[in-house]
Amino acid sequence: MPNSATQTSLRVCWSLFSDDTVEYYELYYRPVLEDMPETAHPCLSISEDGFTMFYGDEETQWLNNWDFQDFHFMNVNMYIVYLIPVRGRHYWEVEVDDGTEFRIGVAYMDTERSSYLGANNTSWCMRHILTPTRHKYEFLHNGWSPDLRITVNPVRIGVALDYERGTLSFFNVDLEQHLHTFHCHFQSYVHPCFGLDNPGALTVHNSIEGL
Fold it and tell me: Cross-referenced Pfam families, in alphabetical order (predicted)?
């Protein structure tokens, strides 16, 4: 079916996994960051087309005079967007550069706004950290991450959410490489979340919903 915002959709055929299973999806192009500006940290801004989030850019200066309430992320540079209220499989992609520290994942709407994404039991995320010797990646939930080493820095990351299977998976899209999967029982619907821990930009390219 067409997307309610754009009335534009395209059916695509692609496999998210390494086996021979072919999955069918409906590809929706839409501004995924624009609907909920009241959840943004005041140092963040969103591009006019709604697809790119900036931190530390001159475009953010106009936000300094805004009156943000407790509902917003105030201590972390986070943005929470569309609720995904449809059971099934969902997929979106995020592009970053390898000099940007970021967090991408999902959270319940009632996740603590003064906390970090992945630091509690109401959010899950992939985190990129720059260290003096290497790029470090963490897959955080409730403050814990498995000990994983990623040798090729992903610049385009696929995120696949499956409510029925209780999985949240991350992929290096350019290499068609699986990075990590969280296994969890979602108690309610979740929102995609995006965060920048240093100056940079993050772009969401599309949203795919399983048929």
Answer: SPRY
On whether the CB atoms of residues 28 and 9 are closer than 8 A, the answer is yes
Residues contacting 202, CB < 8 A, separation 6+: 52, 53, 94, 95, 96, 100, 102, 104, 194, 196
Tell whether the torsion through CA atoms of 157, 139, 77 and 67 is positive or negative.
positive
Domains plus CATH for the chain? Answer: 31-210 (2.60.120.920)
CA atoms of 42 and 63, how far apart (whole Å): 6
pLDDT digits (tens, 9 = 90+) for 168-194: 999 999 999 999 999 999 989 998 888
Query: Which residues contact residue 76 at a Cβ distance below 8 angstroms, ignoring those fewer than 6 apart?
Result: 41, 114, 115, 116, 117, 195
**156 CB neighbour count, 10 Å cutoff:** 15
